[in-house]
Amino acid sequence: MSTVPPGGPALFVGTDTDYVALVRPALDPADEGVRLAAREAGVPPEEFAGPGDLWAVLVESGGEGDGFELPGVRDSEPAGFAERLRDGLTAASGPFTVDGGAVLRLDARPAGGAAYAFTAHVTPPDAPESALTVETGPLPVAGVLADIDAFLGSLA
C-alpha cells in the first residue's frame, strides 16, 4: 500500500480493507524527502511543509493496495466528484453512477436500510491495462455524507 503523509484533504469510500480514496497529502517537514528538498533549496524544511498540490487515488481490495498520482488535477475536480456523490446519495432511490473522468467511476447501489454499496472502477492514467475494481460492503449513507461534508470543508 502506498504510504500517505498525515494531513491534507482525503475522501475515503469503503471500509478498512476495501476502499477507494482521493487524497491530497500535506507535506511533513519530518519527511526525509521534504528535508532533502529543503536542504537543496537552502531553506528550512518548515517552509516546504503544509498543503501539497498533488492529488492521488489510493485503492485497497482485500488487503492489497495500490495508488497513483493525478498530475494537473485542481481541487475543483475532486470537490465536484464529492458533490456529485453527495447529490446522488441524497436524491437517488436506486442505483446511480458518479463519473470521475478517465481514472475513476463509482457505481452506487442500495444495500438495505439507509446504506449503499459501491463498486469503484479505477484506471491508472499511465497504465490502463492495470485497471482495478473495488467492491465495498454496505456503508451507512449518513456516514458517507458526513465524510463528504468533512472533505469539502477541508478544501475550503
What brief labels describe this structure?
156 residues; alpha+beta; five-stranded antiparallel beta sheet; four-stranded antiparallel beta sheet; elongated
Helix content bin: 25-40%
Q: Determine Rg (CA atoms, Å).
A: 17 Å
The backbone outline, from C-alpha atoms, is elongated
| Low-pLDDT stretches | 1-5
Largest sheet: 5 strands, antiparallel
Mean pLDDT: 87
Oligomeric organization of the protein chains: single chain
The total count of strands amounts to: 11
Order of helices and strands: EEEHHEEEHEEEEEH
Helix vs. strand class: alpha+beta
Report the sheet-strand fraction: 25-35%
Task: Please give the count of helices.
Answer: 4
N/C terminus separation: 28 Å
Please describe what this structure looks like:
The protein is 29% helix and 35% strand. By secondary structure, it is of the alpha+beta class. β7 (96-99) and β8 form a beta hairpin. α3 packs antiparallel against α4 (141-155).
